[in-house]
């Protein structure tokens, strides 16, 4: 129905996460109207992803072209004794945006999936274990691993698995607090969330 | 927060329709994990949009690289006496998918926007008018213009404007029928739709 170049564009872009054929065809017609120079810019930013980026050898976050480690791992100001374990790179970015965490990260690379029993093998759990073990022989050992995983069955399953594996290292293992999200309307919270909020209630300290 | 190549990718892709910064960063990390050859493929399908595509000189749909006209305009089997006027290229594709229309198209290139009073100037109305006029001097004159515009205030406003302009050509002007969408649940139809469905009711012909 569309000429070949558009069909090929759609076939390729429709396979990207949360882009379907309909969205891909909208993109094709949108891009079609740009100048050749602009199309080249789009192509260039895609190609630059491989030319100038590496995976951090320490935490598996992204690092700029020549660096073996990422900016966070390279920062001497960061607290080397806490590692925040996240599923993916964008989770690191989300936590960085809060400005409340000054430790290091470990990108797990996914969670355990119920449908794929072998999925735990793909996670960077061994690397995390070794990293903690190695740190314990150095002057700033890791003392706490924060499991910053999604509050979903998969996240919970992964946390339990990590807890079991990391037990042998002796570090303190914590999970993110659960409760009502900031700005939420209590009336519309699901029972699970409201239950967790009750369980993790805090005493107010009036002076 | 992210290394430069990712920031630049996000800045560029976040400006595309229905992709925001969050979606763009997800795409960046997804693409990052592909092979260099695959990234090249993505870049190539973008660049091919300019190398191998033209805008049809007749209806403004897309045509393959060397053709002046698109496949539809070039098809001698199509009914030259009916022109279906649509807002954008993907609307042509949507109508083609029904398999119920065998005439030609005219891509208007947008609708009149309330917020931009001058937006009617950008539409290919003059081109449509000239096209109909020219056809009337040839052996297969255009007899009907179907205004296949969205059933929205903008679509309605554009249809009224087109009706006024095209009146001088003497062609029959029609709009798509309105009513309940196939597969819909009457209970959840809005009043406007239900009203239109009532107005455009058809007599059932039992034999």
UniProtKB/TrEMBL annotation, chains A, B:
InterPro entries reported for this sequence: DNA_Rcmb_RecR, Rcmb_RecR, TOPRIM_dom, TOPRIM_RecR
GO biological process: DNA recombination; DNA repair
Keyword Transcription listed: no
TM region(s), chain numbering: none
One Pfam family recorded for the sequence: RecR_HhH
Record keywords, A-Z: DNA damage, DNA recombination, DNA repair, Metal-binding, Zinc, Zinc-finger
Superkingdom of the organism of origin: Bacteria
Example GO molecular function: zinc ion binding
Domain Toprim: start-end pairs: 81-181
Family, as annotated: Belongs to the RecR family.
Function (record text): May play a role in DNA repair. It seems to be involved in an RecBC-independent recombinational process of DNA repair. It may act with RecF and RecO.
PANTHER family named among the record's database cross-references: RECOMBINATION PROTEIN RECR (PTHR30446:SF0)
Name by which UniProt lists this protein: Recombination protein RecR
Species for this entry: Candidatus Azambacteria bacterium GW2011_GWC1_46_13
């Amino acid at each position: 129905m569309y000429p070949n170049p558009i069909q090929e564009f759609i076939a390729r872009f429709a396979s990207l996460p949360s882009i379907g054929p309909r969205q891909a065809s909208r993109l094709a017609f949108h891009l079609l109207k740009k100048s050749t120079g602009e199309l080249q810019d789009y192509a260039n930013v895609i190609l630059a992803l491989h030319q100038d980026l590496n995976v951090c050898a320490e935490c598996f976050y992204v690092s700029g072209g020549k660096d073996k480690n990422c900016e966070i791992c390279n920062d001497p100001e960061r607290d080397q004794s806490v590692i925040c374990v996240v599923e993916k790179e964008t989770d690191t970015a989300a936590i960085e945006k809060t400005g409340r965490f000054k430790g290091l990260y470990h990108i797990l690379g996914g969670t355990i999936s119920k449908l794929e029993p072998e999925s735990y093998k793909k996670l960077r759990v061994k690397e995390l274990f070794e990293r903690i073990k190695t740190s314990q022989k150095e002057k700033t050992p890791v003392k706490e691993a924060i499991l910053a995983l999604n509050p979903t069955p998969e996240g919970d399953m992964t946390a339990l698995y990590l807890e079991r594996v990391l037990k042998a290292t002796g570090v303190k293992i914590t999970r993110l607090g659960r409760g009502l999200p900031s700005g939420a309307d209590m009336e519309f919270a699901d029972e699970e969330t409201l239950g967790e909020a009750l369980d993790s209630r805090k005493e107010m300290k009036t002076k």
